[in-house]
Design goal:
A hairpin with a 5-residue loop joins strand 4 (31-45) and strand 5 (51-60). This protein has strands at 9-14, 16-20, 24-27, 31-45, 51-60, 69-71, 77-87, 93-100. By secondary structure, it is mainly beta. The protein contains no helices and eight strands.
């Protein structure tokens, strides 16, 4: 099944280009993509063992990775803390789900 027909909202992605604890992060030019927003509270464990509570996730076909910044339709920018790649019933890539802090 093609998930594109369910992506009736939009999201703005700014992909993280560099990560620097001293001077901060730099991001690529913002890109608007079709998306579907959902609200659900979830406790996530980071790679460093720390825990983060995510109350929003967004589904999209566009590549998104941890550390990227995603802005919703109301203008709230959030950091991606976890990404899951979903597959269809045949095992082919379907879409990404990005959990936001």
């Amino acid at each position: 099944m093609n998930v594109r027909r369910f992506l009736t909202q939009s999201a703005v992605i700014e992909r993280r280009e560099t990560q620097d604890a001293y001077s901060g992060h730099t991001y690529a030019t913002a890109v608007t993509v079709p998306a579907r927003w959902a609200t659900a509270t979830r406790l996530l464990q980071g790679k460093d063992g720390g825990e983060v509570v995510s109350d929003t996730h967004v589904s999209m076909i566009a590549l998104v990775t941890e550390g990227d910044r995603v802005t919703d339709e109301s203008g709230r920018a959030r950091t991606v803390v976890r990404v899951r790649a979903n597959r269809d019933t045949r095992g082919h890539f379907s879409h990404y789900v990005a959990y936001l802090a």
